[in-house]
Structure to design on (158 residues):
């Protein structure tokens, strides 16, 4: 019998108030196979909340990743740079320390949640949005809003 683990991450970006403003939820799934959702004709596992979420949204039939390891892929899509610019090629490197491209070092890059934060959104993250400790402290305070409660909710592998 095999064990299936899926790390599900929810990044919530609450928009500033006003007409024409929207909330954004970026749902990241690590090792989430298509067989997990009824949207892909899976009938064995019971996932009513994810199925309802998929039914009300856009379901993609193809999936691609930037790199076949989670740390480099996360650094890539969160920074908007290819792995050969983030210099994250394993789960141990920190793009803030080793990244470099024509726009400067990784320490100066604006991440996706930081972009939303600078536009007035409240950015909250949790789970495995970034690979643990890469970047340090889940990229607080750069990526996440500073609010009275903790802006990033870490998780435990175990």
């Amino acid at each position: 019998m095999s064990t299936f683990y899926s790390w599900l991450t929810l990044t919530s970006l609450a928009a500033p108030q006003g007409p024409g403003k929207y909330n954004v939820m970026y749902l990241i799934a690590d090792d989430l196979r298509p067989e997990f959702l009824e949207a892909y004709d899976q009938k064995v596992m019971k996932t009513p909340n994810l199925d309802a979420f998929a039914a009300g949204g856009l379901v993609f039939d193809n999936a691609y990743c930037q790199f076949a390891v989670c740390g480099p892929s996360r650094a890539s899509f969160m920074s908007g740079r290819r792995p050969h610019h983030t210099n994250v090629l394993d789960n141990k490197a920190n793009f803030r320390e080793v990244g470099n491209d024509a726009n400067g070092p990784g320490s100066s890059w604006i991440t996706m949640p930081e972009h939303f934060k600078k536009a007035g959104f409240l950015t909250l993250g949790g789970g495995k949005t970034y690979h643990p400790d890469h970047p340090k402290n889940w990229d607080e305070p750069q990526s996440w809003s500073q609010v009275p409660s903790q802006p990033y909710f870490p998780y435990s592998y175990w």
